[in-house]
Design brief:
By secondary structure, this protein is an alpha+beta fold. It has four helices and six strands, in the order H-H-E-E-H-E-E-E-E-H. It has a single domain, classed as Nuclear Transport Factor 2, Chain: A (Roll), CATH 3.10.450.
């Protein structure tokens, strides 16, 4: 279980360093990405890559801070706080230059040293309030 926690930490460190290749190296090719609010999951590394590009264009300095992380079996749960600057278009909101912060609860299933499934439940309402 500690190795699973370390893998998730490694992925978040790569995210914070804007190292897309390192992030993708930790993701299974057939990743299932469950995002709160979507009827159907997204699938594959390309879907993850597109999400990474979208969020990093809008918030180039976005940083994930681990508040809590626990593991059981093949699952890891993380409570994160994200902080960044709104420097690009996001969900129809033109760049505001505002500093933002919001919480995300994320759950990962791992197999063979890779993330195979992810569930993301971010506090989008708080984020959107900060954008305008």
């Amino acid at each position: 279980m500690e190795s699973n926690i370390e893998l998730v930490r490694e992925g978040l460190d790569a995210f914070n360093a804007d190292d897309l290749d390192a992030c993708l190296a930790l993701i299974a090719p057939d990743l299932v990405l469950n995002l709160a609010g979507l009827q159907e999951p997204l699938r594959g590394r390309e879907a993850w890559r597109e999400g990474f590009a979208l969020i990093k264009r809008a918030f180039p300095d976005l940083h994930a801070q681990i508040e809590d992380i626990v593991a059981a079996g093949d699952r890891v749960a993380v409570r994160l706080t994200f902080h960044g600057t709104h420097a690009g278009e996001y969900l129809g909101f033109a760049a505001t230059g505002r500093r933002i912060g919001y919480v995300s609860h994320e759950f990962y299933r791992l197999a063979d040293g890779l993330v195979t499934e992810e569930w993301v439940c971010s506090d989008t309402a708080t984020l959107l309030r900060q954008l305008g």
